[in-house]
């Protein structure tokens, strides 16, 4: 049974940091590319960051480049998104996607 469980979201002040985690089970995690998307109310879904499985190449949305870092730990079957210097416009529901499977989404709110 495929399962993706996200954690680490919540409320953070502007300029602060947060680390999202996505724990995967039920499939061979290491075989797949991984990504994080986000969607804010009334806005289109946005690709935040991706690791292309074959080369390990990372790509980021321009809006988060230099502030967010995507990483994976294949031994732990876990995907991460380190979010630094967060801004109010980063407020959104964040989703992990692995091998076409989606997590349930986790709320991140940036506010003072």
What does this protein structure show overall?
- The chain has 112 residues and is mainly β.
- It is 0% helix and 53% strand.
- The protein is built from no helices and 11 strands.
- The chain has strands spanning 3-7, 10-12, 18-25, 34-39, 46-52, 57-60, 68-73, 78-83, 92-98, 101-102, 106-110.
- The strands form 2 sheets. Strands 2, 4, 5, 6, 9, 10 and 11 form a 7-stranded mixed beta sheet that branches. Strands 1-3-8-7 form a 4-stranded antiparallel beta sheet, with no helix packed on it.
- Strand 9 and strand 10 form a beta hairpin.
- It is globular, with a radius of gyration of 13 Å.
- The N and C termini lie far apart (40 Å).
- 28% of the residues are buried.
Q: Find the structural class using helix and strand composition.
A: mainly beta
Rg of Cα set? 13 Å
Q: What is the string of helix and strand elements?
A: EEEEEEEEEEE
Overall form: globular
Average of pLDDT: 94
Range of strand content: over 45%
- Report on the biggest sheet: 7 strands, mixed
The proportion of residues forming helix, as a percent range, comes to under 10%
Residue stretches low in confidence (pLDDT < 50, at least 5 long) are none
Number of helices: 0
Beta strand count: 11
């Amino acid at each position: 049974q495929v399962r993706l469980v996200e954690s680490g979201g919540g409320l953070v002040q502007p300029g602060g940091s947060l680390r999202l985690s996505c724990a995967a089970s039920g499939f061979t995690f290491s075989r797949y590319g991984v990504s994080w998307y986000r969607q804010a109310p009334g806005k289109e879904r946005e690709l935040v960051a991706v690791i292309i499985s074959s080369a390990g190449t990372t790509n980021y949305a321009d809006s988060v480049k230099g502030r967010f870092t995507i990483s994976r730990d294949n031994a732990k079957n876990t995907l991460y998104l380190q979010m630094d210097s967060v801004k109010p416009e980063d407020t959104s529901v964040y989703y992990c996607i692995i091998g076409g499977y989606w997590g349930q989404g986790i709320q991140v709110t940036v506010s003072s």
